[in-house]
Input
Amino acid sequence: MPIRRIVWAGLCAVLLSQVAAARQGVGVAAAKQPPDFYPVAVWYGGGKARAPMLERLDSTSAARWGKDLDQIKAVGFNTVKCWVDWATTEPKPGVFDFGNLDLLLRLAGERDLRVVVQIYLDSAPDWVGEKYPEGRYVDRSGVVIESQAAPGFCIDHAGVRGEVTKYLAALSRDANRSKALYGWDVWSEPHVINWAEFPFLANPEFCFCPSSQARFREWLKQKYGTLDALNAAWYRRFSLWIQVEPPRFPTILSYTDYLDWRAFIDDKLAGDLATRVEAIRSEDTVHPVSSHAAAPGLFTSPTDGYGEPDDFKMSASADFFGTSLYPKHSESVHPWSYEMLAAGLDFTRSAGHSLGKGFWIGELQAGQGATGMRIAEPVDSHDEELWLWEVLAHGAREISIYAWYPMSSGFESNGYGLINLDGTLTPRATAAGKVAQEIARHGSELMASQPAPAEVAVLFNRLSYMVGGSQESLSKLGNATRDSLMGVHRAFWEQQIPVDFVHPLDVLNDRLGQYKILFLPFPVMLSKPVAEGVARYIQNGGTVVAEARLAWNDERGFSSDEIPGMGLARVFGAREKVIHPVEKPEIILDKAAGLEARSALPTGVGGWPPGTHVAAEAFEEELEPLPGAHVLAHFADGAPAIVENSYGKGKAILVGSFLALAAQRRQADTTKQVLLALARAAGVSPEVSVTGAGTSEVEVRRLEGEHREFLFAFNHSAKPASATIAVRLPWAVGEAQGINDDQPVAMSQSAGRTVFKKNLAGGEIWVVRLERK
Output
């Protein structure tokens, strides 16, 4: 749901086993999906009640709902996403009322519509709190949260968890009888606590109930083994485990405890999702089980007191993990740019790709964002078409548009609907339905296609958000981690070069073999095992580009004896001599560095003369090169700014500032070119080039299959573009056909590439199906 604050612990060993199982395809029901069916759904729960509310059934329900479903199918959708809430469907312990769900499944089945079931446990029955009074959420201040229709009760309590699993098993058993059932979404926008805000609390954080604290202690026992080891890590003198509690406030001596607490929350959320999935699996081993974040984790922070999930860890716990997508949400300062949309979708895709999985779009904005009188820009037909084609082009395996009707109540009243509340269609509903029909026509081919593989990887390292522990010591830089990640992504996205975000677990488990270069933007905090994994990747032939203060702090919050830390100074061939805060630092390329030659990418990015000034950000870290290393650039005062070192079979490049942050915030072309040049030197070669008048805002994406490929061209400019699109393919093309009109598309061959010429109107979306000869 579009509310942004929709805000059992999973132990690390358990999580890692889930990851291993996921990569081997163990227990993943997704493979049992119909291979020729691509679900494009609208949220519809029966009548006009907004999720998670359910309309009370009466003698007119079947006829009214059937009329709505007829309209949904006629518009072009093949699936609906309905919902159930725990409070309504188990009004008394062990007494289940799935009447709404059963009716909707029957009506959908009669119309050959499939159904995805969304489950809301946050709307919990009051009897749960009466039966388990210690199952209420507790803020770090000690305030006990009384559920008032929401946010429900803490799953860390064994009694609450038992009721949750019994309920989910009963629900799964009931729905699995229907042939209309397609799949499950067991958790909408996971947080420790959802759907509630507490203005009477200062900086609320959850959960500090006795059960959550007990789970935290069990997590610590798994990590440290003994109380003595914990005492050494936390600088404490506990004599009994029962004395150990999560930190409630920062002190000058308190940082490792906070880092452990945030890591526990990550694992807890992944474990909570696994609990829900396993409960559904107890009665349904066929249909895929999913969950979706409130927003791509690229845009959130692990320090949030409500608990923001780690998308990569969540992906390990379900068949699919995805996201909500609201580019024009009422709480956004501005509508998302197309660059932001691409970065968010690439991040969500990467979280699943890391485990060999696809992803679902749990919620795609349907209508104008509204929260009270905070009303966003209208959503039009082009928005809906663009968002649908973009998520498809990024490899989504399911799309659910939120919602068919606008919200009928609450502070989102009349917002986010695809049609009008009186039931009349809108142009954007017609446009979305048309795209849904095109997707359905090619369902089997799309399901057999994957996004073009990336040779460039960017490390998503949540530790970098937490230098200084719970004290916001990096506040002068704002959200530097997020912006740095986006900066690297943007530099390559603008040149049509695919990028994957990778997780520390990928580094730890040596899953970087497909990448020619790995970027470590804003790497100020790194765990020792990850540092060792980075060194192995380089030693085995990879190239790594790391920025200032590399591995300055470890996962305990301790500073390294030298920077780069954890032995990486030897790997990168340099160490920090001194660091200066500078408002707008600049790096000057050396004449002998050869970067200007490396920059000559076939995408049209030209070289630049030696001595070029390159924009950086925040600091000038003077580097002291070690024997054998080479200086590629200096600061204005002559101090080394970029050092390159050979290590094993690979290359390690250390930058004494934050180029990625500058690429995002200052949008300096030469900064992006340096990132591109370093990738070029590592062997990265773009497979797509776009040239021609007005093509600076043309984006091209590809879905690859064994015998066919889909090419998507988006003209994000309002002005026309005369595009020449050249694509390097692994096979010769026998036929090219437009998706929308089924007309043949002219093509030619040049320099080993298939070339298309297309005059794109402003805002035009062009999709071509390529068939292997």
